[in-house]
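Ticket opened by: R.M.
Priority: normal
Category: complex prediction / small molecule

The reporter submitted a protein together with oxa(dethia)-CoA and asked that the result be attached to this ticket for the collaborator who will pick it up next week. Submitted input follows.
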Amino acid sequence: MIRSVVRGIGASLPRRIMKNADFEGMVETSDEWIAQRTGIRQRHIAADDETTASLGEAAARAALANAGLTPDDIDLIVLATSTPNNTFPATSVEIQNRLGMRHGFAFDMQAVCSGFVYAVTTADLYIRGGLAKRVLVIGSETFSRILDWSDRSTCVLFGDGAGALVLEAAEGAGSIDDRGVLAASLRSDGEHKEKLFVDGGPSTTGTIGHLRMEGREVFKHAVGMITDVIEAVFSQAGVTAQDIDWFVPHQANKRIIDASAKKLGIADEKVVVTVNLHGNTSAASVPLALSAAVADGRIKRGDLVLLEAMGGGFTWGAVLVRW
Ligand code: UT7
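Result attached by the on-call engineer:
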């Protein structure tokens, strides 16, 4: 059977780093509160000339270089983002143009923080369905543009950045030992819209709006939703928590990550954490964390890697990949 195998990975972060202490003169907060409640120590914030498209392009170029490929080798770009450069056209098409691609096709996916998990699942279906041989899957965000910088309960939590994977069609035996995407489970439930949303948009206010979140409410649902969807992936693939080599969760809050890993029975040393360095970068958080763990040699070819995310909508999902 056809499998979607990871051929390359890359990342890109804005030049500017903003430390927790940098908020202390702006809103009533402290490095101590932010670090204790979230695990975040710093985040990258995009300058005016750094956009979702430019960061996405840089991550895509890094992933292509890592794969030993050029844009000519790519059939499809799927970009997960909730902070596009323009309402339309899709920012993925802008990235396609920046890469000099005059063939193939590109589209954006909007599932907020779960966007990358949705995009990998979608790319896998295009590959297995025979519509594409090589897909660039990108998560790129500039959440700094939609933050209310006077709201301490949200502005300290998010950051900007991008990560990308090249997925490639390869023949597999159809077993759990195959490399590539092995199982996926996606969920959404619009009942929870008001707990995490942006209070503007083209069809309602005609403005971009600002991110609004009832953090405690999101927290209350997060661990249960994350672990449910992971259990679904485990049973699909016939694996257990003990079989997982690396758990790469969405990076929103260290306490959510720890509680999820504990509930699933995944050992601390198998959990990849970058929330301290990047904050919550929404659809970019999973590929940024993956990229860090591949770059430092933790994730190696053949490892069983569990990806997970949960966010606005609510949306949530998990993907199991053999690297
Ligand atoms: O990526 C999408 C998914 N999003 C998430 O997963 C986020 C989920 N939620 C969270 O991570 C946490 O709920 C937060 C980090 C947002 C908040 O942590 P918490 O432990 O749930 O705190 P809280 O909202 O219950 O607030 C505790 C106190 C409040 O004061 P009172 O009412 O106890 O007097 C807040 O006003 O902390 C206050 N507070 C702050 N204090 C200092 C809220 N934000 C800040 C701040 N600095 N930045």
